Amino acid sequence: MLHRSSIPATTPVGVRDLPPELAQTFYQLQAELLNTFKQANYQRVLTPTFELADVFEQGLGDTAAAQVMRFVDPQNGEVLALRTDITPQIARLMAGAMADTPLPARVSYFGRVYRLRHEQTFHRREVAQAGVELIGPADVAADVELIALCDQALSSTGIEGHTLSIGHAGSIGAILNTLSLESGSAETLRWLIGRKDTDGIETLAQEEGIAPKTIKSLVQLTGLYGRPDSVLKDAAALRGQWSELDDACERLRAVIEKLETQSLNCNLVLDLGEVQGFGYYTGVIFHAYVPGLGAAVASGGRYDNLLGRYGESRAAAGFAIDEEGLTEIRMRENACQQP
Q: Which of 126, 128, 169 shows the shortest CA–CA distance to 15?
Protein backbone atom coordinates (compact mmCIF):
# COMPACT_ATOMS: atom_id res chain seq x y z
CA MET A 1 0.00 0.00 0.00
CA LEU A 2 1.34 3.44 -0.95
CA HIS A 3 1.98 6.00 1.76
CA ARG A 4 0.29 9.35 1.12
CA SER A 5 3.66 11.07 0.86
CA SER A 6 4.65 8.77 -2.04
CA ILE A 7 1.62 9.68 -4.24
CA PRO A 8 2.67 12.22 -6.92
CA ALA A 9 0.93 15.60 -6.51
CA THR A 10 -0.32 15.68 -10.11
CA THR A 11 -3.65 16.22 -11.85
CA PRO A 12 -5.40 13.76 -14.19
CA VAL A 13 -4.57 13.94 -17.89
CA GLY A 14 -6.39 16.79 -19.62
CA VAL A 15 -7.04 19.04 -16.62
CA ARG A 16 -4.93 21.64 -14.87
CA ASP A 17 -4.77 24.05 -11.95
CA LEU A 18 -4.74 27.82 -12.30
CA PRO A 19 -2.39 29.39 -9.73
CA PRO A 20 -3.25 32.87 -8.34
CA GLU A 21 -2.00 35.00 -11.23
CA LEU A 22 -3.70 32.88 -13.89
CA ALA A 23 -6.88 32.57 -11.82
CA GLN A 24 -7.05 36.33 -11.33
CA THR A 25 -6.73 36.88 -15.08
CA PHE A 26 -9.33 34.18 -15.76
CA TYR A 27 -11.95 35.74 -13.47
CA GLN A 28 -11.20 39.24 -14.70
CA LEU A 29 -11.85 38.13 -18.28
CA GLN A 30 -15.02 36.35 -17.17
CA ALA A 31 -16.29 39.57 -15.56
CA GLU A 32 -15.60 41.49 -18.79
CA LEU A 33 -17.54 38.92 -20.83
CA LEU A 34 -20.41 38.91 -18.32
CA ASN A 35 -20.67 42.69 -18.56
CA THR A 36 -20.76 42.56 -22.37
CA PHE A 37 -23.50 39.91 -22.35
CA LYS A 38 -25.48 41.82 -19.73
CA GLN A 39 -25.35 45.04 -21.73
CA ALA A 40 -26.71 43.12 -24.73
CA ASN A 41 -29.68 41.97 -22.57
CA TYR A 42 -28.62 38.33 -22.24
CA GLN A 43 -29.75 36.98 -18.86
CA ARG A 44 -27.50 34.56 -17.04
CA VAL A 45 -28.68 30.99 -16.34
CA LEU A 46 -27.05 28.11 -14.50
CA THR A 47 -27.25 24.44 -15.52
CA PRO A 48 -25.94 21.31 -13.73
CA THR A 49 -22.55 19.77 -14.38
CA PHE A 50 -24.06 16.32 -14.96
CA GLU A 51 -27.29 15.12 -16.52
CA LEU A 52 -29.29 11.96 -17.09
CA ALA A 53 -27.31 10.40 -19.94
CA ASP A 54 -30.28 9.45 -22.13
CA VAL A 55 -31.82 12.92 -21.78
CA PHE A 56 -28.60 14.80 -22.44
CA GLU A 57 -27.59 12.67 -25.41
CA GLN A 58 -30.87 13.43 -27.19
CA GLY A 59 -29.20 16.67 -28.23
CA LEU A 60 -25.96 15.15 -29.49
CA GLY A 61 -24.82 13.49 -32.71
CA ASP A 62 -22.93 10.18 -32.76
CA THR A 63 -19.49 11.82 -32.72
CA ALA A 64 -20.28 14.12 -29.80
CA ALA A 65 -21.94 11.28 -27.88
CA ALA A 66 -18.69 9.30 -28.14
CA GLN A 67 -16.96 12.06 -26.14
CA VAL A 68 -19.35 11.83 -23.19
CA MET A 69 -17.98 10.72 -19.81
CA ARG A 70 -20.61 8.51 -18.19
CA PHE A 71 -20.95 7.08 -14.69
CA VAL A 72 -23.54 5.25 -12.63
CA ASP A 73 -25.40 7.09 -9.89
CA PRO A 74 -24.60 5.12 -6.71
CA GLN A 75 -27.92 6.23 -5.19
CA ASN A 76 -30.31 4.82 -7.78
CA GLY A 77 -28.29 3.11 -10.52
CA GLU A 78 -29.20 5.66 -13.23
CA VAL A 79 -26.59 6.35 -15.92
CA LEU A 80 -25.42 9.93 -15.70
CA ALA A 81 -23.25 12.00 -18.03
CA LEU A 82 -20.85 14.86 -17.44
CA ARG A 83 -21.91 17.55 -19.88
CA THR A 84 -19.78 17.89 -22.99
CA ASP A 85 -21.71 20.90 -24.20
CA ILE A 86 -24.02 23.45 -22.56
CA THR A 87 -26.22 24.18 -25.58
CA PRO A 88 -28.29 20.96 -25.26
CA GLN A 89 -28.85 21.89 -21.63
CA ILE A 90 -30.25 25.25 -22.70
CA ALA A 91 -32.54 23.41 -25.12
CA ARG A 92 -33.75 21.18 -22.27
CA LEU A 93 -34.18 24.22 -20.01
CA MET A 94 -36.27 26.01 -22.65
CA ALA A 95 -38.52 22.94 -22.88
CA GLY A 96 -38.84 22.75 -19.09
CA ALA A 97 -38.51 25.55 -16.56
CA MET A 98 -38.39 28.26 -19.24
CA ALA A 99 -41.09 26.83 -21.54
CA ASP A 100 -43.38 29.83 -20.96
CA THR A 101 -40.65 32.45 -21.46
CA PRO A 102 -41.71 35.07 -24.04
CA LEU A 103 -39.68 34.99 -27.22
CA PRO A 104 -37.15 36.09 -28.20
CA ALA A 105 -35.26 34.72 -25.20
CA ARG A 106 -31.65 35.76 -24.65
CA VAL A 107 -29.61 33.77 -22.13
CA SER A 108 -25.94 33.62 -21.19
CA TYR A 109 -23.95 31.09 -19.20
CA PHE A 110 -20.56 30.33 -17.72
CA GLY A 111 -19.54 26.75 -16.99
CA ARG A 112 -17.18 23.86 -17.58
CA VAL A 113 -17.68 21.00 -20.02
CA TYR A 114 -15.95 17.63 -19.97
CA ARG A 115 -14.94 15.59 -23.00
CA LEU A 116 -13.23 12.30 -23.68
CA ARG A 117 -10.31 12.68 -26.06
CA HIS A 118 -9.27 9.79 -28.29
CA GLU A 119 -6.23 11.43 -29.88
CA GLN A 120 -2.74 10.64 -28.62
CA THR A 121 -1.74 14.32 -28.46
CA PHE A 122 -2.65 16.34 -25.37
CA HIS A 123 -6.08 17.98 -25.31
CA ARG A 124 -7.91 19.60 -22.44
CA ARG A 125 -10.71 17.36 -21.20
CA GLU A 126 -12.12 20.10 -18.96
CA VAL A 127 -12.97 23.28 -20.87
CA ALA A 128 -14.27 26.50 -19.33
CA GLN A 129 -16.84 28.21 -21.53
CA ALA A 130 -18.73 31.48 -21.61
CA GLY A 131 -21.60 31.64 -24.07
CA VAL A 132 -24.96 32.98 -25.16
CA GLU A 133 -28.05 31.56 -26.85
CA LEU A 134 -30.74 33.47 -28.75
CA ILE A 135 -34.03 31.56 -28.87
CA GLY A 136 -36.89 32.45 -31.21
CA PRO A 137 -35.76 34.53 -34.20
CA ALA A 138 -34.82 32.65 -37.36
CA ASP A 139 -33.97 35.63 -39.55
CA VAL A 140 -30.72 37.06 -40.87
CA ALA A 141 -30.78 39.77 -38.22
CA ALA A 142 -30.46 37.12 -35.49
CA ASP A 143 -27.38 35.59 -37.14
CA VAL A 144 -25.85 39.05 -37.48
CA GLU A 145 -26.64 39.90 -33.85
CA LEU A 146 -24.75 36.86 -32.58
CA ILE A 147 -21.73 37.25 -34.83
CA ALA A 148 -21.46 40.95 -33.94
CA LEU A 149 -21.83 40.12 -30.23
CA CYS A 150 -19.04 37.53 -30.46
CA ASP A 151 -16.81 40.16 -32.06
CA GLN A 152 -17.77 42.68 -29.36
CA ALA A 153 -17.18 40.18 -26.54
CA LEU A 154 -13.68 39.35 -27.76
CA SER A 155 -12.88 43.02 -28.28
CA SER A 156 -14.08 43.85 -24.76
CA THR A 157 -11.31 41.64 -23.37
CA GLY A 158 -8.66 43.54 -25.32
CA ILE A 159 -8.26 40.93 -28.03
CA GLU A 160 -6.95 42.42 -31.27
CA GLY A 161 -6.34 41.01 -34.72
CA HIS A 162 -8.93 38.26 -34.43
CA THR A 163 -10.59 36.70 -37.47
CA LEU A 164 -14.20 35.61 -37.73
CA SER A 165 -14.58 32.76 -40.21
CA ILE A 166 -18.19 32.35 -41.31
CA GLY A 167 -19.72 29.36 -43.08
CA HIS A 168 -22.97 27.44 -43.33
CA ALA A 169 -23.84 23.93 -42.14
CA GLY A 170 -25.80 23.41 -45.36
CA SER A 171 -22.80 24.12 -47.57
CA ILE A 172 -20.75 20.94 -47.10
CA GLY A 173 -23.93 19.31 -45.80
CA ALA A 174 -25.54 19.74 -49.21
CA ILE A 175 -23.09 17.23 -50.64
CA LEU A 176 -22.69 14.96 -47.60
CA ASN A 177 -26.46 14.49 -47.36
CA THR A 178 -26.52 12.98 -50.84
CA LEU A 179 -23.88 10.38 -50.00
CA SER A 180 -24.94 7.02 -48.60
CA LEU A 181 -22.00 6.65 -46.23
CA GLU A 182 -21.74 4.68 -43.01
CA SER A 183 -21.62 6.99 -39.98
CA GLY A 184 -17.93 6.27 -39.38
CA SER A 185 -16.94 7.13 -42.95
CA ALA A 186 -19.16 10.22 -42.94
CA GLU A 187 -17.55 11.52 -39.75
CA THR A 188 -14.05 10.81 -41.07
CA LEU A 189 -14.90 12.71 -44.24
CA ARG A 190 -16.18 15.66 -42.17
CA TRP A 191 -12.96 15.60 -40.16
CA LEU A 192 -10.84 15.64 -43.32
CA ILE A 193 -12.91 18.52 -44.70
CA GLY A 194 -12.39 20.46 -41.47
CA ARG A 195 -8.63 19.99 -41.84
CA LYS A 196 -8.76 21.03 -45.51
CA ASP A 197 -7.02 17.73 -46.31
CA THR A 198 -7.90 17.51 -50.00
CA ASP A 199 -5.66 14.48 -50.62
CA GLY A 200 -7.34 12.62 -47.78
CA ILE A 201 -10.78 13.66 -49.04
CA GLU A 202 -10.06 12.36 -52.52
CA THR A 203 -8.62 9.07 -51.23
CA LEU A 204 -11.53 8.34 -48.89
CA ALA A 205 -14.14 9.42 -51.45
CA GLN A 206 -12.63 7.14 -54.09
CA GLU A 207 -12.56 4.24 -51.62
CA GLU A 208 -16.26 4.85 -50.88
CA GLY A 209 -17.11 4.83 -54.58
CA ILE A 210 -18.24 8.45 -54.74
CA ALA A 211 -18.70 9.78 -58.27
CA PRO A 212 -15.67 11.71 -59.64
CA LYS A 213 -17.83 14.80 -60.33
CA THR A 214 -19.01 14.87 -56.73
CA ILE A 215 -15.45 14.41 -55.43
CA LYS A 216 -14.31 17.35 -57.57
CA SER A 217 -17.12 19.54 -56.25
CA LEU A 218 -16.37 18.52 -52.65
CA VAL A 219 -12.69 19.41 -53.03
CA GLN A 220 -13.58 22.73 -54.71
CA LEU A 221 -16.00 23.64 -51.94
CA THR A 222 -13.47 22.76 -49.25
CA GLY A 223 -11.01 25.24 -50.77
CA LEU A 224 -13.44 28.16 -51.00
CA TYR A 225 -12.03 30.33 -48.21
CA GLY A 226 -11.12 34.00 -48.06
CA ARG A 227 -12.65 37.39 -48.85
CA PRO A 228 -16.45 37.04 -48.83
CA ASP A 229 -17.01 38.67 -52.24
CA SER A 230 -14.35 36.51 -53.86
CA VAL A 231 -15.61 33.27 -52.26
CA LEU A 232 -19.23 33.88 -53.27
CA LYS A 233 -18.10 34.67 -56.80
CA ASP A 234 -16.07 31.45 -57.04
CA ALA A 235 -18.97 29.47 -55.58
CA ALA A 236 -21.11 30.42 -58.57
CA ALA A 237 -19.56 27.54 -60.55
CA LEU A 238 -21.10 25.06 -58.09
CA ARG A 239 -24.51 26.70 -57.85
CA GLY A 240 -27.48 24.79 -59.24
CA GLN A 241 -26.16 21.33 -58.31
CA TRP A 242 -27.64 21.27 -54.79
CA SER A 243 -30.53 23.43 -53.62
CA GLU A 244 -29.10 23.44 -50.07
CA LEU A 245 -25.88 24.98 -51.37
CA ASP A 246 -27.81 27.65 -53.24
CA ASP A 247 -29.80 28.47 -50.09
CA ALA A 248 -26.62 28.56 -48.00
CA CYS A 249 -24.90 30.98 -50.36
CA GLU A 250 -27.92 33.30 -50.41
CA ARG A 251 -28.12 33.31 -46.62
CA LEU A 252 -24.41 33.97 -46.29
CA ARG A 253 -24.59 36.79 -48.82
CA ALA A 254 -27.37 38.45 -46.80
CA VAL A 255 -25.46 38.00 -43.52
CA ILE A 256 -22.21 39.38 -44.94
CA GLU A 257 -23.99 42.42 -46.41
CA LYS A 258 -25.44 43.30 -43.01
CA LEU A 259 -22.20 42.60 -41.15
CA GLU A 260 -20.34 44.96 -43.45
CA THR A 261 -22.56 47.78 -42.17
CA GLN A 262 -21.55 46.98 -38.56
CA SER A 263 -18.53 48.48 -36.78
CA LEU A 264 -16.71 45.19 -36.39
CA ASN A 265 -13.20 44.93 -34.96
CA CYS A 266 -12.35 41.65 -36.67
CA ASN A 267 -11.10 40.43 -40.00
CA LEU A 268 -14.10 38.86 -41.74
CA VAL A 269 -13.65 35.82 -43.97
CA LEU A 270 -16.01 33.33 -45.59
CA ASP A 271 -15.37 29.58 -45.55
CA LEU A 272 -17.76 27.36 -47.53
CA GLY A 273 -15.79 24.34 -46.31
CA GLU A 274 -16.51 25.22 -42.68
CA VAL A 275 -17.68 22.37 -40.43
CA GLN A 276 -18.68 22.24 -36.77
CA GLY A 277 -17.89 19.47 -34.32
CA PHE A 278 -21.49 19.17 -33.13
CA GLY A 279 -23.98 17.70 -35.55
CA TYR A 280 -26.99 19.79 -34.52
CA TYR A 281 -26.07 22.90 -36.54
CA THR A 282 -28.44 23.72 -39.40
CA GLY A 283 -27.51 27.18 -40.71
CA VAL A 284 -24.88 29.89 -40.47
CA ILE A 285 -21.88 28.79 -38.38
CA PHE A 286 -18.71 30.62 -37.38
CA HIS A 287 -15.34 30.34 -35.64
CA ALA A 288 -13.16 33.05 -34.13
CA TYR A 289 -9.38 32.76 -34.36
CA VAL A 290 -6.65 34.74 -32.62
CA PRO A 291 -3.01 34.80 -33.80
CA GLY A 292 -0.83 32.50 -31.73
CA LEU A 293 -3.66 30.24 -30.52
CA GLY A 294 -3.87 26.98 -32.46
CA ALA A 295 -7.59 26.32 -31.98
CA ALA A 296 -10.65 28.53 -32.35
CA VAL A 297 -11.20 30.75 -29.31
CA ALA A 298 -14.95 30.91 -30.02
CA SER A 299 -17.44 29.04 -32.16
CA GLY A 300 -21.16 28.84 -32.71
CA GLY A 301 -24.01 29.06 -35.16
CA ARG A 302 -27.65 28.28 -35.88
CA TYR A 303 -29.30 25.06 -34.66
CA ASP A 304 -33.01 25.30 -35.47
CA ASN A 305 -33.81 21.60 -34.90
CA LEU A 306 -32.23 21.07 -31.48
CA LEU A 307 -35.00 22.40 -29.23
CA GLY A 308 -37.52 20.17 -30.97
CA ARG A 309 -35.69 17.13 -29.57
CA TYR A 310 -36.79 18.18 -26.08
CA GLY A 311 -40.14 19.83 -26.67
CA GLU A 312 -41.62 22.51 -28.89
CA SER A 313 -39.50 23.23 -31.97
CA ARG A 314 -38.02 26.72 -31.93
CA ALA A 315 -35.35 28.49 -33.94
CA ALA A 316 -32.13 29.11 -32.03
CA ALA A 317 -28.51 30.14 -32.39
CA GLY A 318 -25.59 30.83 -30.08
CA PHE A 319 -21.86 30.69 -29.48
CA ALA A 320 -19.34 29.70 -26.81
CA ILE A 321 -15.99 31.30 -25.95
CA ASP A 322 -13.01 29.33 -24.62
CA GLU A 323 -12.21 31.20 -21.39
CA GLU A 324 -8.89 29.45 -20.78
CA GLY A 325 -7.84 30.22 -24.35
CA LEU A 326 -8.52 33.89 -23.66
CA THR A 327 -6.56 33.62 -20.41
CA GLU A 328 -3.53 32.25 -22.25
CA ILE A 329 -3.70 35.11 -24.75
CA ARG A 330 -3.99 37.77 -22.01
CA MET A 331 -1.07 36.30 -20.04
CA ARG A 332 1.07 36.14 -23.17
CA GLU A 333 0.30 39.76 -24.00
CA ASN A 334 1.07 40.84 -20.45
CA ALA A 335 4.42 39.05 -20.61
CA CYS A 336 5.32 40.80 -23.86
CA GLN A 337 4.55 44.21 -22.34
CA GLN A 338 6.89 43.70 -19.37
CA PRO A 339 10.29 45.43 -19.70
A: 126
